[in-house]
Design brief:
The structure holds two protein chains of two kinds.
Chain A: H1 2-11, E1 27-37, E2 40-51, E3 55-59, H2 66-74, E4 80-86, E5 92-93, E6 98-101, H3 115-123, H4 136-145, H5 162-173, E7 180-184, H6 192-209, E8 212-216, H7 220-226, E9 229-234, E10 237-242, H8 244-248, H9 251-257, H10 259-278
Parallel strand pairs in A: 3-8, 3-9, 6-7, 7-8
Antiparallel strand pairs in A: 1-2, 1-4, 4-5, 9-10
Chain B: H1 2-11, H2 20-45, H3 49-69, H4 75-95, H5 100-119, H6 130-133, H7 141-170, H8 172-177, H9 182-204, H10 209-223, H11 227-252, H12 256-278
Classes of the chains: A alpha/beta, B mainly alpha.
């Protein structure tokens, strides 16, 4: 069933100028994004089209502008171009609600901020040093359960492992369920198993809540496994976008990430196909 | 004021409280230390100890400007200058060309030097040395009225902005995704800090003002497990150190501000030992 849905999505093509999704599915459109800071052009001509239920991974060398794109989408830094959310009925809105999972939080390990503090500070106006509203605890527990993190509710943020913190931040971004979920994958402090669990959780949630997801990623193997679409940012713009197969066989991508990785990826894919044939 | 005096005579008929100036000082401490305790939590969280220190130092230039303009009570020129230097630091910080530490260092030493140069003209610096150590016993009923107003203002402001400020301090992009104007909250917080530091300087002294902000929060941080405990402990430590410092300084004949700081340091030592034993 899911396969079928994906097929439909990938088969419909769009012009970047149009305002409609044309497939009867909701989507988020980024049109002609550009960012210039201090006289330097950091991003130009960025066009992205993300369907609900799709996980779009953004890859690229360091300093290519991946994080800048995320910050521009969030509205943290000024940009040119348009950001639109179109629901299934084509009723466009220019302000999609956004959930954001940052790479890390600025706090040292001795910080007395608990997981509950973080959620309460986000959801309520009552100063958390004074008191919590009664209902908040229940709501936080429910939200944390979505990412298997409900047991962490009273822990201090500084004592969490990289993987645990990531799950907590993901739960936070999902309350309320956003139109667009932006994930900045941590570069360090999280082990391979934690990272895979994180991808699995994101992948499940994507289907469950029909989320549009943009993920800045550094782990090409996991991208190949979990992403529906991949956008390769290089030289300040998206140089290539498409399915993982398409992007990972692109000449520029191979050059950037090295031939070894690409060969390994392609032989893996071939194995998969062979195995499928054997079955 | 009469009600306060007779109330004190009735409730606390101690020898150290016989004089009106001691009663004034006690009221002043009860008003100002909780503010130190509250604001300190965020200053320590954001690693802004150096910033609060430089705010204190910049007051020297504020006094100097007041002297040049021929103002009797330099509080207004001090306020003006500390707000000015706060904005200057924030603006230069946003340009992102040097580390925050360096920027604050540059502004702070410039302000101190400028203040000393102006005030020491004609060799008259000694009359201003009272600002270095402060004189809590000089607090008068008019000051107390000002302090009460500031107390109400700061508590109200802190209640309104705290949750959002906390989120902004942990991750600006995350705060942004929740529609929080990060800059606005940063400015509100640093301005409040500037005002509180400047107003208290004549009673506490330039040299130790930032210790009064940092120590209660730092001590509380050693034992607090969440934000509420952090604030409650911090306010209590500030209050107890304040009152105990006032009493001891009366009997020892020492400077009140410095005595208070020493007691806060003792609190830090005890909580730190406690923390070491716990872990």
């Amino acid at each position: 069933m899911n396969m079928k849905l994906n097929m439909i999505q990938h088969n419909c093509t769009h012009s970047s100028e149009g305002t409609s999704c044309k497939c009867g599915l909701c989507c988020t459109k980024i049109t002609d994004f550009g960012v210039t800071r201090g006289g330097t052009e950091i991003l130009r001509n960025v066009n992205l089209h993300i369907h609900c239920g799709d996980l779009t991974a953004i890859i690229g060398p360091n300093g290519a502008g991946k994080s800048t794109l995320i910050k521009a989408i969030l509205g943290e830094i000024p940009h040119t171009g348009k950001l639109q959310f179109l629901d299934a009925k084509d009723e466009g809105t220019t302000n999609p609600s956004m959930g954001y999972v940052p790479q890390k939080l600025d706090l040292d390990s001795s910080s007395p901020t608990s997981v509950l503090d973080l959620f309460a500070a986000t959801h309520t106006r009552m100063p958390i040093w004074f008191s919590y509203p009664k209902k908040i605890q229940e709501r936080v527990r429910e939200t944390l359960a979505r990412t298997q993190a409900e047991h962490l509710i009273n822990k201090r943020l500084g004592t969490l492992s990289g993987g645990e913190l990531q799950r907590v931040l993901l739960a936070l971004a999902l309350d309320p369920i956003p139109h667009l979920l932006l994930l900045d994958e941590p570069v360090s402090g999280i082990d391979q198993r934690g990272l895979e669990l994180f991808y699995k959780t994101v992948s499940t949630l994507r289907k469950e809540y029909d989320l549009s997801i943009i993920l800045v990623s550094h782990d090409l193997n996991l991208v190949a496994e979990y992403a529906d679409r991949v956008a390769f940012i290089n030289n300040n713009t998206i140089e290539c976008a498409g399915t993982p197969q398409e992007v990972f066989s692109n000449e520029k991508v191979i050059q950037t990430f090295g031939l070894d990785w690409s060969k390994r990826y392609q032989s893996n894919e071939k194995d998969k196909v062979d195995n499928a044939h054997m079955v | 004021m009469h009600i306060w005096y007779s109330l004190m005579n009735l409730l606390l008929p101690f020898s150290w409280l016989q004089h009106d100036f001691m009663k004034n000082a006690l009221l002043g401490i009860i008003l100002v230390t909780p503010i130190f305790g509250l604001l300190g939590t965020m200053i320590v969280n954001n690693k802004m100890a150096f910033f609060s220190d430089s705010l204190g130092h910049s007051a020297l230039t504020g006094i100097a400007i007041g002297v040049i303009l021929g103002i009797d009570n330099p509080i207004w020129s001090m306020l003006f200058f500390s707000v000015l230097i706060t904005i200057a630091i924030l603006v230069v910080k946003e340009a992102n060309t040097a580390s925050t530490d360096t920027i604050i260092g540059v502004f702070s030493s410039t302000a101190v030097a400028l203040g000393i140069v102006i005030l020491s003209r004609n060799g008259g610096f000694n009359k201003y040395s009272v600002y270095l150590i402060g004189d809590l016993l000089s607090i008068n009923p008019t000051d107390l009225l000002t302090l009460s107003l500031v107390f109400i203002l700061v508590i109200t402001l802190w209640s309104v902005i705290f949750n959002r400020l906390l989120l902004a301090s942990m991750n600006p992009s995350l705060a942004r995704s929740r529609g929080i104007n990060v800059r606005l909250y940063e400015y509100l917080f640093t301005m409040t800090m500037a005002v509180i530091v400047t107003i208290s300087i004549q009673w506490v002294g330039i040299l130790i003002i930032s210790s009064l902000l940092i120590l209660p929060a730092a001590a509380s941080r050693n034992i607090a497990k969440n934000m509420r405990q952090y604030h409650v402990y911090s306010v209590f430590i500030a209050l107890i150190s304040g009152v105990a410092g006032l009493i001891l300084s009366y009997f020892w004949g020492t400077a009140t501000g410095a005595t208070i700081v020493l007691i806060s340091s003792a609190f830090f030592a005890v909580t730190f030992a406690f923390k070491l034993r716990m872990s």
